[in-house]
Amino acid sequence: MRVTFPRLPDHQRAYALVERDDGVVYRLYGGMAGPRLPHDIMHLIAERELRIRDGIWAGIAAGVVFESMCHVSGRRPPHAAEHSRDLLRRFRQQGLRAELLADLVAATAALETMTQDKIRQLTRDKLAVLSAPPPAGEVDPVLIAAAARALQVEAARWARLRVGEELNYEWPGN
């Protein structure tokens, strides 16, 4: 799946173009455009770097269509809406976990100094609401720090973009 994030003029409604492997293209609307890294890129980078294969981006690749998505082109598979609803029910807990892990990576990226102790504390704080802890590999402080550094790199890339330029990603990455 290819995901394209165009840099739009500030204060316009931001979006990403999602070209799924089945040929269907959706526009995924986000917040307002601006110099800050879009939330959906933050998610994609966190899920890619932590190798989360059942999070939000994996759901979209599998056929989830969120309310913030608008069909652009390509023939949708038969019963796509029902399939999306079924996937959403199955991905609900994983989606929450992915959201919290992306928030953890973003909070780690914002630290002045990344230490394992600070990352462990952030992990306890950010993931406390989960009914079951994520797999140990997803919350390894070394992996969280690496994902945070990757997020910092993407934020810098985004900040350098001019209006009309874009960032492109392949899902799954790595």
Short description:
The protein is of the alpha+beta class. The protein has 5 helices and 5 strands. A hairpin with a 6-residue loop joins strand 1 and strand 2 (13-19).
- Whole-number count of domains: 1
The number of distinct β-strands equals: 5
Q: Overall 3D geometry?
A: globular
Order of helices and strands: EEEHHEHHHE
What percentage of amino acids are in beta strands? 15-25%
Number of helices: 5
Q: Could you say which structural class the secondary elements and strand pairing correspond to?
A: alpha+beta
Cα end-to-end separation: 13 Å
Low-confidence stretches: none
What's the gyration radius in Å? 16 Å
Helical residue percent band: 40-55%
Overall mean pLDDT stands at: 92
**How does the major sheet shape up?**
5 strands, antiparallel
Major sheet strand order: 4-3-2-1-5
List strands and helices in order, with pairings:
Elements: E1 2-6, E2 13-19, E3 25-32, H1 39-49, H2 56-62, E4 69-73, H3 80-109, H4 116-127, H5 141-160, E5 166-170
Antiparallel strand pairs: 1-2, 1-5, 2-3, 3-4
What does this protein look like?
The chain has 5 helices and 5 strands. It is α+β, with helices and mostly antiparallel strands. The protein has one domain. A 5-stranded antiparallel beta sheet has the order 4-3-2-1-5. It is globular and about 50 Å long. 29% of the residues are buried.
Q: Any key phrases for this structure?
A:
174 residues, alpha+beta, five-stranded antiparallel sheet, 5 strands, 17% strand
